[in-house]
Amino acid sequence: MTSKFSPLRPAWSALTTTSAIITPAIVTTAIAVSTLAAPSGALAQEADPQAVITIGSLYEPQNLDNTAGAGQGINEAFNGNVYEGLFVLTDEGDVEPRLVEDYEISEDGLTYTFTLKDGVTFHSGDPLTAADVKSSIERVTAEASASSRKRTLATIESVETPDDRTVVVTLSEPSISLPYNLSYVWIVNDAASDISNSEDGTGPYELQEWRRGSALSMVPFEEYWGEAPDNGGVMFRYFTDATAQNNALLTGGVDIITSIQSPDALSQFTDNPDFTVSEGASTTKELMAFNDRVEPFDDPQVRAALARAVDNGRLLNAIWGDYGTLIGSFVPPTDPWYVDLTHVNAYDPDSAREMLAEAGYPDGFSFTLDTPDYDPHPIVAQFLQNELSKVGVDVQINIITANEWYTKIYQQHDFQATLQEHVNHRDIVFYGNPDFYWGYDNPEVTQLIADSERAESTEQQTEMLTEANRIIAEDAASMWLYLYPQIVVSAANVTGYPVNGLNSQFFVADIEKTQ
Amino acid sequence: MTDRPDAPRPDAPWPDAHRNDPRAEAHDGPHVSAPAEGPRSAEPTETSEIPAAPPSPRRRSRPAAVHWLGYALVAVILLTGLLSLVWTPYALSDMAGSRLEPPSLRHWAGTDQLGRDLFTQLMIGARIALIVGTGAVAIGAAIGIVAGVLAAFATRFLDDALAAVFDILIAFPTLLIAMLVVAARESASLGTAILALGIGLSPIVGRVTRILTKRVLAKDYITAARISGTGWPMVVADHVLPNIAPFLGVNLALQFGLAVMAEASLSYLGLGAPPPNASWGRMLQEAQGTVYSAPWAAVLPGLALFALVIGVNLTADGLRDRFDPAGREG
Amino acid sequence: MLGYVARRLAILLLSLFIAAVVLFVLLRLLPGDPAGALVGVGATPEQIEAARAQIGSDQPLGVQFLAYLGDLARFDLGRSFVSRAPVIEEIAARLSVTVPLTLAAFVLALVLAVPLGTFAALRARRWSGLLLSVVAQVGIAVPVFWLGILLVYQFALTWRWLPSGGFPLRGYEDPWRAVQAMVLPVLTIALVMAASLMRYVRASMLEVLGSDYLRTARALGESHTGALMRHGLRNAAVPVVSVLAIELSTAFLGAVVIEQVFSLPGMGSMLLLGIQQRDYPNIQGVLLVTTLLVLLTGFLADILQRALDPRLRQEGGQ
Predict the structure, then answer these.
(1) CATH code of the domain in which C220 resides
(2) What is the pLDDT of residue B249?
(3) Where are the domains of chain B?
(4) What is the helix (H) or strand (E) element at residue A160, kind and residue range?
(5) Range with lowest mean pLDDT among A124-128, A421-425, B23-27, B71-75
(6) Mapping DSSP to helix (H, G, I), strand (E, B) and coil, where does residue C75 land?
(7) Least confident range of A459-463, C85-89, C308-312
(8) Which of A163, A176, A217, A210 is nearest to A54 (CA)?
(9) Most buried among A426, C214, C236, C262, by the most CB within 10 A?
(10) How many Å apart are CA B202 and CA B190, to the nearest integer?
């Protein structure tokens, strides 16, 4: 599971939450944080406020502009650290105001009036004004924008700036997740020119230096409006190889690894008092997506039969040893609409054979599985090939690059089945979009998901999406294999880092290091 | 090697070092050509381009036992590869064991992440290494020999042009050319990897063929044959190919090792033969992530690769000694 | 000599032009749409069209080719599709890693190979010489990335003497750490290169040892070592120099694999990333600069060889 090409992970895997649903009211989500190894006595010492924290990551940004295909790495490094939004999605999964002091929603839910915080300045020294917010939102919704979030903000009709501290956003229809969606919109100084190679945000850190292929460093911003960071700066060191990254942590080259890629690497850290291993709440789902438009996968019975033919527990063990979770659907336990659906189409090869015969494939069939060339997909594909051969289904593995995946599968829908990991939380909404790459088209689900966006309360929203969750599971809309574990490992003298990394964010301001 | 201080010896195609060393072979072209090809090819000294053989009286001192070791290694790998066609301990995709079992009586080389038998994969890997080596060398030879013979027969202008193209292509190592070819194909496959490596090897073969052919063409009996009206296809078939065959054969044997190594590097970079091909390079790549919990899974394919390359190199040495009368006399 | 240099230079430029054309054609054959990768998931067809127009991939190939040649003539390698940064700047930053890496490995390989190769030749019939030959044979058959991983395991993980990979952010402004970061990669390349070089040196020395003039010199009463030093080394060096150029090029390009093992921000990792992302300007830039360096190395080696070998000098001067 040395991910040779991890940095080349499809840039879109970080951007896949094209829509998400959350109320402005804080949704408390229980997120289990278990510390597997107790930190050593280093905790007793005083943290060094000047210490520079080095963070190891496999996701180097392609550029510095999150609307220009920069990949998940830019969210990891910049969200909440260099740039801030009107709202912030915290590591606990709550949406909280950040640059917004106060806001009002009209009766009909169509007009949001935001009052901006006072005394906020950009790194260049310019003060934050309503015009900056307007241009930042329009940068994302602009015709030429390459932002994947453009569609989620499509309900925005206009952005007005009655005065320097007030922004009025008018919607074409109610959108319960507007604050959540705005948490992705970086507020950028409207005077900034080239933000793909430099930055001008309002965050607690400013970019110091970026050496492509190596590292990116940031230092605390002196004029920051909020609380000053607990450390003297942060450096993200980028690796192309998970083994190299682990080695760096072992030898003190980095202080933290944001996500461990294999259980074998973990064994070096779990029994070692010099390191802390933390398991957070994961939202990364490995799945085999059928093309639900084409034969034989347009038949739910065939999809269900294949789901029953695969022993997901054994697969999870092969990839992750004792880590990870089976969820039986696309919804992880951190989403409010999670229910345990592992019993739906559970492993049962005999019934799989019967269902295939009933569906008109007594002798099985053959299909091509387009497999991205980076881990864990090739090994998962081989497992599926082996399992499905036992019910007479012949799998042809076709290895493709991330780029080809994008063109062939995501854009052209030219595939039978493919493997992919989806990293974001609250992304069940993909099943409400019949034009999405997997082409799942169940009018009932589409309606439920659309209605949930116009819901009047969180409870109502949760109820609708739970129902949608059940339906997609029974339809076997895709083959959900497992939920990755989310494991952060650090040197024992480093504390205060986020462990969930929701939507690839990694807030660094609270990290402390003792000498 | 016109640049040698001592007189060219037309009996042997290249100096000692080059014969032993696949990497050296690979580069035989440009360093021969660099000084000689460019401006000097206009001068009537074509024969002097031919690398001279050293008298190398001491080379004989290498014990023949070393060559026998080479033959033995190649034979064992060849037989293993053949055996894998009819018998392996388990089926390739049979997940018979549990995750990363250490070597045992049940699984002689342990198991991989999915519980598949590694010894089975090693056996099939031997077959794939042989296919990759043979296939790549065959493609490289087909393109290289045609281009090389053509260049040797061609007008000076075409000869110069071809020689320049060989040089440019050799400037990109096999691995780099292979990477580009793999990337240019719609999807990776064993065939693509072989084709890529073959194309990568072809300029090297072309280079050597051209030099060898020129050497033969300079001989009196060729001149005699041509004067007597023999057509060039006959000259190629009757004189050139039989004469260059032994030396070219040794060279190709060395390219074989080069191809197998390059496939491993391609696989390491994630551009090699896709699963379920159990190529040794792919096994190495997969094992690298689990090297701490299952070191044997990384060590064994590495050793196999090493054994094949060293076996082929030693075999090439041995073959050269057989075919090289100068060497035998020495 | 001057005439030779001029002709050699003309060939260098012509080769570079051919390489540029070949690269352009080859890269346009790569499948996948670079514009698609730029805009990411959820993009509309209009967004993709906009991205195509932005990077110029909507133009006819002929137009793209002419624009490409025009840019090359002005030493402009364009901007990366992905990072939007000028290719030449990124190459410059990455060359500052790859070039020292290659040169240091090359020098170390020479330092190892010349004495060891000479020794192996002098002791060709004794066990010590044979042993060296065997070691060289082994060194050639070891996959370079395997050796790299092995060295990391021993020097970085077990002994903790050196960093396991990476390169300091501030580069050579942080000289101590930059040097530390280079030690293992240099060692890896140097060992493999030394094994191969040693064989050339040994063979070349063997040849010189067997030559008539050396026998004559010895018959005239010079000591073996004295004769070797006076007549052997220079003659043995001539063929080795031509090999060196190739070895240097190979090392330079072989850095692709080693930079991967050691997470170094060099040309190799830039190329690999470019291939994955179909970032044509980056791939093109790396390969063009690499070709230039390889051809330049060959050019310099030829000139050096002429200078070393009086016979060639005469012929070339005709």
Answers:
(1) 1.10.3720.10
(2) 83
(3) 114-329
(4) strand A156-163
(5) B23-27
(6) coil
(7) C308-312
(8) A217
(9) C262
(10) 18
Q: Is the pLDDT of residue A435 over 60?
A: yes
Cα–Cα distances in Å, from A457 out to A161, A337, B269?
A: 29, 14, 51
> Do A399 and B274 make contact, defined as CB atoms within 8 angstroms?
yes
Q: What is the pLDDT of residue B14?
A: 36
**Residue C220 in domain:** yes
Contact between A387 and A311 under an 8 Å Cβ cutoff? The reply is yes
Instruction: Specify the CATH number of the domain A285-483.
Output: 3.10.105.10
Q: Does domain A87-182 have CATH number 3.90.76.10?
A: yes
- Classify residue A384 by burial, with Cβ atoms within 10 Å: 0-12, 13-18, 19+: buried
List, as ranges, residues 219-278 from B with C-beta within 8 Å of A.
Answer: 268-270, 274-276
Asked whether residue C292 is assigned to any structural domain, the reply reads yes
* A419 part of contact set with chain B, CB < 8 Å: no
Q: Which of A282, A271, A273, A277 is nearest to A257 (CA)?
A: A277
| Helix pair C280-308, C233-261: axis angle to 10 deg | 170
Among B197, B195, B199, B212, smallest CA distance to B144 is for B199
- pLDDT tens digits for range A186-199: 999 999 878 888 89
CB atoms C199 and B24 under 8 Å: yes
Q: Name the percent of chain C lying above pLDDT 70.
A: 76
Q: Where does residue A50 rank: exposed (0-12), middle (13-18), buried (19+ CB within 10 A)?
A: exposed
Tell which CATH architecture fits domain A42-82+203-281+487-513.
3-Layer(aba) Sandwich (3.40)
CA neighbor of B141 nearest in space, from B219, B212, B233:
B212
**A8 or B147, greater pLDDT:** B147
Among candidates B198, B200, B176, B195, which has minimal Cα distance to B185?
B195
> Looking at chain A, which residue has its C-alpha nearest residue C37?
A403
**Cis ω for the linkage preceding A376 (within 30 of 0):** yes
The pLDDT assigned to C310 comes to 63
Contact at CB, A250 and C165, closer than 8 angstroms: no
Give the domain ranges of chain A: 42-82+203-281+487-513, 87-182, 285-483
Tokens read off for C122: 């002098």
Rounded Cα gap, residues A142 and A139, in angstroms? 5
Query: In whole angstroms, what is the distance from residue B116 CA to residue B137 CA?
Result: 31
Confidence band for C145, pLDDT divided at 50, 70 and 90: confident
Alpha helices in A62-199 (DSSP H): 72-78, 130-141, 178-182
The pLDDT of residue A100 is: 95
Residue A131 pLDDT grade (very low, low, confident, very high; cuts 50, 70, 90): very high
Q: Looking at the predicted structure, is the pLDDT value of residue B314 above 70?
A: yes
How many whole angstroms separate alpha carbon A320 and alpha carbon A316? 6
Query: Which has more confidence, A2 or A462?
Result: A462
Q: Could you tell me the pLDDT band of residue B290, with boundaries at 50, 70 and 90?
A: confident
> Structure tokens of B168?
């440019």
Residue in the structure block whose two tokens are 């439920």: A448
Taking an 8 Å cut-off on Cβ atoms, the answer to whether A379 and B294 are in contact is no
* Joined tokens for residue C48: 């993709």
Token pair of A343, please? Answer: 């019993």
The CA distance from A481 to A310, in Å, is 9
Write down the CATH superfamily of domain B114-329: MetI-like (1.10.3720.10)
**Number of domains, chain C:** 1
Contact between B314 and B255 under an 8 Å Cβ cutoff? The reply is no
